User: Fold this.
Amino acid sequence: MVARRSAPTQRVVQVLDFFVEQRGKRFGLSELARELDLAKPTCLGILTELSAGGYLVRDAHTRTYGLGPALIAAGRVAQDSFAISAIARVELEKLTAEYRTTCTASAVVGEQITVLESTGPGMVKVGASYLFAPPVGLMYVLWDSDAAFDAWLAKPSTVPLQQDVARLRQVVAECRERGYLVESLTGAGRRLYSLLAGVAARDLPEEVRELVGELVTSLGERVHLGTDLRPRKEHPVSLLAAPTYGGDGHQSMVLTMYVGTAITGAEITRRGAALVAAADAVTAASGGRKPESPH
Assistant:
C-alpha cells in the first residue's frame, strides 16, 4: 500500500529545504514564491506559520526571511541523538556477541519513545515509536528525577488503567538502587507493545482500549523486585534495562537486553551488571555524567 502524501506538508518541507540549501541567505516573499513556484498567498501563509514557530525569522526592515533559532535547537537535539546512538551501537554489539540476543537503545523524542539502535537476532525496527504515556514508558523515567516520574504518571493513559502507585514507587526506589530493571512480560504484554506501536490512544476502539487495560492493570507487577529473585531459582524474564545519562546528570537513553525465557537469579545479576557496564560506557563516551546517588 502506497503511503498517502500531504501536498500542504510537502510545500512546507520544500520551503525549509530551500532555506537550508541556500546556507543562510535571506529572501523576500516575492522572490521565494517565484523560486519555489508557489502562489504568493500560499507562500505567505507558510512563512507566517514557520516564523511564528521560530523556524524562520523575518527582518522587519528588509522584509526578508531567514532560518530561525528553533531549527538550531532541533538540529542540536538530532545531532546529539544520532551521535550518542552510534556510540551505543558499539556497546550493544558487544552484548549481542556475548549473550546472542537482541539489544536496543531507545529514548524519548518529543512525546514518543523511539528505537534508535538495535543489534542481534530478531532486531527491533529502528525508528519504531510508542506513545510516551502510561502504561508505556516507565523505564524512561525510572532513573530520572522524581518530578519526571510524577509528570509521566500524570499523563493521560493510552488505555483505561488502575495503578498501584505505592508499588510503582517501590519499583522506582529499588531500580535506582540496583541500577537496572528486570521486567517479566507475558505474551499479552508483548502484544500490547505491538498494538500501541505508533498508535495514538484516540485511534484505538473503546473495546480494545478496555481489553488492553485489563491486560496491564498494574505496571509495577511486571517488574521483578530484589526480594523476588533467588540466585538458584529460575525466573521468567522478558528483558533487562539500564539507563545512560546526559551531561546534566539526567537520564538520557535506555539500553535493553532481551531475554525471553526463564533464567536464574544469579544469571540475572550477571547480565544486569554487564548491561549497566555498557550503559556507563555510553555515558562516559558521550560526555554524560552518572549521578553519584539516585535523583
The longest strand covers residues 251-264. The first helix runs from residue 7 to 21. The chain has nine helices and nine strands.
